[in-house]
Write a structure and sequence with these properties.
Layout lengths: L11 E5 L5 E5 L2 E6 L5 E4 L6 H13 L4 E6 L2 E6 L2 E5 L5 E5 L4 H5 L10
Antiparallel strand pairs: 1-2, 2-3, 3-4, 4-8, 5-6, 6-7
């Protein structure tokens, strides 16, 4: 297993736009997107691979996002803020932390809320 404390370089880019949104892109998929309001989106893009999980966990560790992604018996899980949620394989995108009401104002679909 590769190192877990910093985002790897192979086929990976870390960018931050003028809007303050930070993205970790692996190949052509934004696997981690962090918004200024605190919202965090994870996206495997249909590629549930060990390297996809590694990039997500590296981003969490490097940027102190507080989540962990792992696989057990072919199912993916995410832990954050003391909560564990299953990640359905047919759902490539998962919001693991929500920000303030900005999402509602923008008309975005309601995210999965954990820990309430």
């Amino acid at each position: 297993m590769g190192q877990q404390w910093k985002v790897g370089r192979v086929a990976t880019a870390v960018t931050q736009g003028e809007d303050g949104v930070r993205r970790v892109t692996y190949h052509a998929t934004d696997v981690v997107t962090v918004y200024p309001n605190g919202r965090i989106d994870l996206n495997h893009g249909g590629w549930q691979t060990p390297t996809t999980k590694t990039r997500m966990n590296q981003a969490s560790n490097q940027f102190k996002l507080g989540f962990q992604v792992w696989q057990e018996n072919w199912h993916w899980y995410v832990s954050i803020d003391g909560c564990v949620i299953g990640w359905p394989s047919r759902t490539p995108r998962l919001t693991v932390r929500i920000g303030h009401d900005l999402d509602r104002e923008l008309g975005n679909p309601p995210p999965i809320i954990i820990g309430e």
